[in-house]
Amino acid sequence: MSGQGGINGHGGPGGSGPSRRKRQSQFVVDQHLTNRRAGARQTTSADGAAAPSGAGDTSSDAEPPTSVLRETSDGWSFCKLCKVAFPSSGAEAHLQSKRHELGLLMFQQGKHDTSTQDLHNIRITCEALKNEMSGFHGVAVNPGEKADVHFTILNASASYSRNLVSWGCPTAGSGIEFVQQAGLQLKPGQSVRLQMKICMAAIGESRFYVFFTFTNGLNEPKFTVQKCPVSVSCVDDIVQRLGADRAPKNRRFIQIPSHLPVAKQTVPGTRPPKGHSDKLEKDLQLKPYNLPGKMRSFINRSFKDTGSRLDENSRTEMCAIRQMCEEGVRYSTYATRFSALLYCEEAQMDVDIKQYNLEGVTMNQRRNSGLLVLEVPGLAENRPSVLRGDHLYVRIMAADGTLGDHEYQGFVHEVEQTRLILGFHQKLLDQFVPNMKFRVEFVNNRYPLKMQHRALELVEEQPDMEHLLFPSYDTIGSWGNLITDPSSPLTFYTRNPAPNDEQAKAIRHIVAGTSRPAPYIVFGPPGTGKTFTIVEAMKQVVKCLPEARILACAPSNSAADNMAEKLREHLSKDTLYRLNAASRAVSTIPDKIREFSNIDRETGQFEYPRRSELEKKKVIVCTLITAGRLVSARFLPGHFTHVFVDEASQATEPESVVAIAGLLDVSKDMDKGGQLVMAGDPKQLGPILRSPLARQWELDISLMERLMRNFPPFKRRQAPQGGEYYDSRVLTKLVKNYRSHPDILSPSNKLFYEGELLAYADPLLSERMCGWDTLPRTDMPVIFHAVIGEDMQEHNSPSFYNPQEISVLMTYIDRLVNKRSPKGTLIKEEHIGIITPYRKQVQKIRTELRKRKFEALKVGSVEEFQGQERLIIFVSAVRSQPSFLQTDMKFGLGFLTNDKRFNVAMTRAKALLVVIGNPNVLACNRSWKHFIDYCHTEGALRGQELLHSDDDSSLDELVKLWSQLAISQDDPTAEEVSVHNDQQEWRRDQ
Question: Where are the domains of the chain?
Fold first, then answer.
């Protein structure tokens, strides 16, 4: 918030002259790189022991190395050779399987194209229609178009004949025909030309090896097998056009810090006009909580004792912090541990923000304002997130690229779609001329971090918080009920529809306060109405408990606005108040909540009333971070009797604590309140973090998820008691899904929700796409469209895109938009959403949509779709090259590393779900494998043929062919890791 000193706490001009900006004493290192280097020092076996010196030996008589297996945190293993996932209990069976035998053979031979070698005087050449692609002879065809590939076999022996016993490939697919029969004899010096016919119906890539088996012509049982790699691409105009943008192969994006000469002076900028009336007290100080230099040094080492440049005291301190973080969350170290993790996150934020720095850019001067205008690519997508009152730094660049010795602070006065309106000191304006070049440095907004650090300090000052944050059976319900009988019926405000049985039960327990002092949790899987439930609970608290005062919070403005709108349906504007941060654009506030928001009616700007005015409101709605503004005002202990947090599973624990510590009194004499209520779903996406260290030590686990994971009162029982798997005094699981068709809901229901979800969606909506003529099964509105595409990158971007998937996607879009559904309703752009994990894929899809003038169709990441729904959802998985899987797993990219991301993507659709991806790659993840198997079993597959299963007889033939090739000595345990950083969206809500 700009009222709290902007970002990083730097002061404005305020009459002070130029000064030198205080910089951090130590450089920040990308934690992804330090973690990678630390983890690559030695090869380890499956049990974690260091591998012996001969571990890399993969000769044919050696045991298959167990270190090719990577165990995941959910009890599954991933084989790096076979690119498949399976339960860890089946690891030994996999290592002995035909599939793994084939994987090992293919690895040992996969890097060698024997068609270019003269083995036993047999030489094979391929006349391809295109140049070689990644070592494969590439052939491009259009859908339904026929093409031929010819192989010439020369017997270069001067003395011996050779017999071609067989040729072909067991896995080439139905679109490939090997014309000539085997049984040909090649005399010395003779050659033969063989023909392979190609006709592919589906867009995508098909890569396989053509095997040639020979005898020596003397009727001896000695065989010679050679292989020739072939790549067949079925393409159209979209694939060809997008493929032309690709960068060269094997390019790596590694962030290299730029060491620039330090500016001699920093000239402070001009702050934006205050623009709001701020009468709200600031009785509790918000300290800077700067990242200590010593902590930065520890983070740069990943808290590992490397034996260099650390004195004994520092080494001891660093090891103690690491041990504390590894031990998990404890009340005795609660504040210290979470503060350390926040510092880890801040350090990585400092690294990541640098990717948005701009070199050699120009600014324009806004007429008659003294402000400069800067174009920022990606600004509209929060890449980076910049708010009013934030600041950045610029330096003048000379024609030869050298930088001026002054840097100028620029405060953000306005944020437009792709432009920042900036206020600089007059010293820069006096020098400014059109087309002047600048280097722009972005800096992070530290205000949310400071609020979280202060909240952790306040927890230490309130010993009774232990009962709230570390509840036990001994304390649950120990305060007694606020109403006599929690099972007594309530008269609900919302009657069409009225709360269902589970929702009503949760509401009654919340009103009665049966969990106090422990929190109450509403576990709401997708589409089950968790926000509806807690909003009705708040209305009942207001009605049944006249002295109650409620603080209703959420991590984002959109979720807070949603609560406020629903509350207003039955609460008066005198009772309800929506408190917004000053950094929010007034124009983004929905019309329905403006009348009870903190907007000055005369100026149209934000206002902050005195504490005494806010105390009159029965319900205040704000974001979790803005709740810290109320902490600063020091409301009387016990003023807020209830704190409700919606989407609680999306907030870090320190973020949730901002709305609790200093606001909710949980002392034993609180007979009228002290109730925390959290609603969310820990099976969906949690907080978005950047630091691998913070994730490693579970800063991405919300308070809600920690309680449900670790504390018996909140855990699911192994057997029901009284017909319930959860203790209803503290938690209710909602099970009726009002969003999706049963076939769309089924995979996530089985994978994540014990099969307990019930499909209650209105059939008029959920069955709207049943009968669509494109469905493989007309009564099942789910499609998995198999596409073996190609991962590509542009020259200037590390992010991936997949032209083949985009082509298939656009074919579906053209069949749907502005067409009638089978039930006769018009399908509009806003009915459709497209989810894809990579920023470049989003951009490419949007470009194709704009060509069709489809501007209202939303395309975005899973994070952008959480909490949303559409009639029709498309998912483009992008990843198609197994070689990139290890990179994705290390850096948390794409769909394959995060089951929560998969769950959200699969549960946004009401009436039609279409998933486009490479089944061979996606099946590496157990959730994806379940979904693909589900579609296969139910007859919901389209596109290219799937990979052969483990019991397929073709595996025996492939193993035989590969085993007769010469064996190489490559080490399948070795990893090649490229540093990749797909640009995450930055959070912007305060």
Answer: 2-31+286-447, 114-235, 462-734, 742-963
Q: CA 173, 174, 178 angle in degrees (round to 5)?
A: 85
Compute the distance between CA of residue 834 and CA of residue 861 in angstroms, rounded to an integer. Answer: 8
Residue 304 has pLDDT above 80, yes or no: yes
308-317, 714-723, 953-962: which range is least confident on average? 953-962
Query: Could you tell me if 297 and 26 are in contact, meaning their C-beta atoms sit under 8 angstroms apart?
Result: yes
Q: How many helices (H) and strands (E) does the chain have?
A: 29, 38
pLDDT, tens digit, 9 for 90 and up, residues 502-518: 999 999 999 999 999 99
Judge if the upstream peptide bond of residue 517 is cis by omega within 30 degrees of 0: yes
Q: 182: Cβ–Cβ under 8 A, 6 or more apart, which residues? A: 164, 165, 166, 167, 213
Of 341, 961, 315, nearest to 689 by C-alpha is 341
- Domain 114-235, classified CATH 2.60.40.10, yes or no: yes
Contact at 8 Å (CB) between 979 and 252? yes
3-state secondary structure of 765: helix
Which is nearest to 780 in space by CA: 772, 788, 770, 766?
770
Question: What span, in angstroms and rounded, lies between the C-alpha atoms of 700 and 654?
Answer: 10
- Residues 203 and 958: their CA atoms lie apart, in Å, by 26
**What distance in Å separates the CA atoms of residue 21 and residue 215, rounded to the nearest whole number?**
78
What is the C-alpha to C-alpha distance for residues 217 and 309, in angstroms, rounded to an integer? Answer: 71
pTM: 0.86
User: Is 597 in a helix, a strand, or coil?
Assistant: strand
Q: Is 215 helix (H, G, I), strand (E, B) or coil?
A: strand
pLDDT in tens, 542-568: 999 999 999 999 999 999 999 999 999
> Do residues 804 and 236 touch, judged by C-beta distance below 8 A?
no
CATH number of this structure's domain 742-963: 3.40.50.300
Tally of CB atoms within 10 A around 961:
22
Q: Which helix (H) or strand (E) holds 552?
A: strand 550-554
Q: Which residue has the tokens 């193993």?
A: 959
**CATH topology match: 114-235 vs 462-734:** no
| Nearest partner of 428 among 390, 395, 388, 392, judged by Cα | 395
Instruction: Say how far apart CA 719 and CA 707 lie, in whole Å.
Output: 19
CATH 2.40.30.230 fits 2-31+286-447, yes or no: yes
| 221, 171 Cβ separation under 8 angstroms | no
Q: What is the DSSP string of 916-954?
A: EE-HHHHTTSHHHHHHHHHHHHHT-EEESPPPPPTT-TH
| C-beta of residue 226 within 8 angstroms of C-beta of residue 122 | yes
CB neighbours of 300 closer than 8 A, spacing ≥ 6?
26, 27, 28, 29, 34, 347
Structure tokens at 701: 């686990």
Query: 959 falls in which pLDDT band (50, 70, 90)?
Result: low
**Distance separating alpha carbons of residues 683 and 158, to the nearest angstrom:** 69
The residue length of the chain stands at 990
The angle that helices 899-906 and 742-752 make with each other, rounded to 10 degrees, is 160
- CA distances 504 to 206, 480, 522, 530, Å, are 54, 20, 11, 11
How is the chain split among helix, strand and coil, in percent rounded to 5?
30, 20, 50
- Read out DSSP for 396-433? EE-TTSPEEEEEEEEEEEEE-SSEEEEE--HHHHHH--
Nearest to 452 by CA among 636, 641, 649, 659: 659
Q: Which CATH superfamily is domain 462-734 in?
A: P-loop containing nucleotide triphosphate hydrolases (3.40.50.300)
Residue 543 near residue 551, CB atoms below 8 Å? no
Neighbours of 760 (CB within 10 A): 18
